[in-house]
Design a protein that fits this description.
Number of helices: 26
Largest sheet: 6 strands, parallel
CATH topology of the largest domain: Rossmann fold
CATH class of the largest domain: Alpha Beta
Oligomer: single chain
Shape: globular
Structural class: alpha/beta
């Protein structure tokens, strides 16, 4: 085949893989990409305000769209500006390709401007611990191989970000090898340890000589979303009447208004999930795609261990048994495991079906013990300044059932996690493991690019706006109609709630000026409104969603309201005291 310029070759490969948008900040070391970026049909380049914003946009695109995200930047300062975003993507197993420009190969190590090659600053080494792969294409003959290797490593097993550093002379060279589309199994692996599945069935239906467990509960994490297995989880739960809780990262993989839903377990979790899993009643706990991290376990609370068997299903064998030994470890795709369980036509499945009435009665007992939410009355609060729970409740009412919510880091994360109901996978998006402030603002833009047909809102805070608020101009520039809801309380909310207990000095370090974020947004081309009273929320949210353009809502909230994380806080206190 005739040689194709490396820049165009890469962009055509991305388009072949179903990528519709890429995110970037232009600069000299990626100048050769600009002509191809400007005229590659079906691929929209989105120029961000900051390289960190471009990387967060790519991350949000990946999480919402279910493929992978792509961002471009110069090497050196462009890459160092992306470090936090890459760490967040790595922590949450989000697949992002970073394409960085590098000085020509004959400049390396000779004091060239912005030389960050392995002979100088070495930004490949900078990103190495934060990515699954960080490669430099030293010669055009390696271009096809390194691109394919990078995408494969990004998607295989537990997913994560990768970097491909390309010197400008390589960017301008020609590639002869044809691009062949990646196999679908990379995006949706379909394998599971069948011997382990047999052991699981022996646990669920041990035979006539033993009593089969009745109180079986599923805890679904992000692995279910990654496997596109929400439908399979629903089928399993309904066939065998199994209650389902999710982690905060897995929120949305099971509809939270379903009769079998117990809500979120862990940080910002719900009463039925927390009280049931910690009750000592659960005989078999099916952990699906969760590494049982600190927040997924309420500070590794051993009370959640079941009386008969902990079952842990995960693509990554390194996380199985990391927190507690699993009596039934199952390495494999959550979707494949769930399908084998839900579709089984065996005597063991008949045993499990026979105990449906007992589980239904158990579920009725669970729901009779108390309301789903802690302090649920706060959603109807008439307080001025506003209560964040009321804001979240009104936004949930305004956004359609299939709308997408992107949540930032801060006190608002707890209010959203607890009071927001999610009904579908990839409709509740948050960087839950690393939690960088301001991440959701650009990530929401990327998510909207991936799902343009879905109404989308971003819930962020005034502290977050100070970090990445400038990216709202990117939404305005490209006409991406996201609704940015700023919980404006004049403080670094979560930190203020802790610091106030330490006295006036520490508290003063966490307070912020009360900025006019609506005015800021208007100056950047958005429509905007300020809300100060509860009765104003519903009409303004409806106006924002109907506007069809980027819209920012500056909501004046009271910083003194405690977040709904009492069980998590108590678990933290007990952990520290025991330590």
């Amino acid at each position: 085949m005739d040689a194709i310029p490396a820049t165009r070759y890469l962009l055509e490969a991305l388009r072949t893989e179903g990528i519709t948008h890429v995110f970037l900040v232009p600069g000299g070391l990626i100048d050769p990409f600009l002509p191809a970026l400007a005229d590659t049909r079906g691929l929209t380049p989105v120029v961000a305000a900051h390289e960190g914003g471009a990387a967060c946009m790519a991350d949000g695109y990946a999480r919402a769209g279910g493929r992978f995200g792509v961002c471009f930047a110069i090497g050196g300062p462009g890459i160092t500006n992306m470090v936090t975003a890459m760490a967040a993507a790595r922590s949450d197993f989000s697949p992002v390709l970073v394409v960085s420009g590098q000085v020509p190969t004959d400049w390396e190590g000779r004091g060239g401007f912005q030389d960050s090659s392995p002979a100088a600053l070495n930004d490949v080494a900078v990103l190495h611990p934060l990515t699954k792969s960080s490669l430099m294409v030293e010669h055009i003959h390696l271009f096809h191989h390194h691109l394919r290797a990078s995408l494969t490593r990004m998607l295989a097993g537990f997913q994560g970000p990768v970097q491909l550093s390309i010197p400008t002379d390589v960017q301008r060279a020609g590639v002869h090898a044809p691009w062949e589309k990646l196999d679908s199994s990379l995006y949706s692996p379909r394998f599971v340890d069948l011997e382990a599945m047999d052991r699981l069935w022996q646990t669920l239906a041990p035979g006539p000589q033993a009593t089969a467990p009745v109180r079986i509960l599923a805890l679904a994490g992000a692995g279910v979303e990654k496997a596109d297995a929400s439908g399979d989880l629903l089928a399993l739960a309904e066939r065998f009447e199994i209650p389902v809780a999710t982690t905060l990262r897995g929120k949305g993989v099971f509809p939270e208004d379903h009769r079998l839903s117990l809500g979120v377990f862990g940080y910002a979790g719900h009463r039925p999930a927390i009280e049931t899993i910690l009750s000592g009643e659960v005989e078999v706990l099916l952990v699906l795609g969760s590494g049982l991290s600190q927040r997924d376990t309420l500070f590794w609370d051993r009370r959640m261990l079941p009386t008969r068997a902990l079952v842990q299903v995960d693509l990554d064998p390194q996380v199985i048994g990391r927190t507690w030994p699993a009596q039934v470890p199952v390495t494999g795709d959550c979707g494949e495991a769930l399908r084998l369980l839900a579709q089984a036509d065996t005597p063991a499945a008949g045993v499990l079906e026979a105990s449906r009435p007992q589980r239904r009665a158990w579920l009725e007992q669970i729901k009779a013990r108390g309301p789903r939410h802690y302090d649920g009355a706060h959603t109807a609060s008439e307080a001025v300044p506003l209560h964040p729970a009321r804001v979240v409740d009104e936004l949930r009412r305004a956004l359609p059932r299939d709308g997408v919510l992107v949540v930032d880091s801060g006190a608002h994360r707890a209010f959203c996690g607890h009071y927001w109901d999610a009904y579908e996978p990839r409709t509740y998006i948050s960087a839950t493991n690393l939690g960088p402030m301001g991440w959701a603002i650009p990530a929401g833009i990327g998510a909207k690019a991936a799902r343009p047909e879905r109404p989308l809102a971003v819930v962020t805070g005034d502290g977050c706006m100070l970090m990445h608020g400038m990216e709202v101009q990117t939404a305005a520039r490209y006409g991406l109609p996201a609704v940015f809801v700023v919980i404006n309380n004049g403080a670094l909310g979560n930190v203020w709630l802790r610091a106030r207990k330490e006295g006036a000095g520490p508290m003063s370090l966490t307070e912020l000026p009360l900025h006019d974020w609506a005015g800021f947004a208007r100056s950047l081309g958005l429509k905007a409104a300020t809300v100060s009273r509860p009765e104003e929320l519903a009409p303004v949210f409806q106006q924002a969603l109907a506007a069809g353009v980027p819209f920012l809502v500056d909501v004046r909230c009271n910083k003194t309201f405690s977040t709904p994380v009492t069980p998590f806080s108590q678990a933290k206190k007990e952990w520290i005291d025991d330590d």
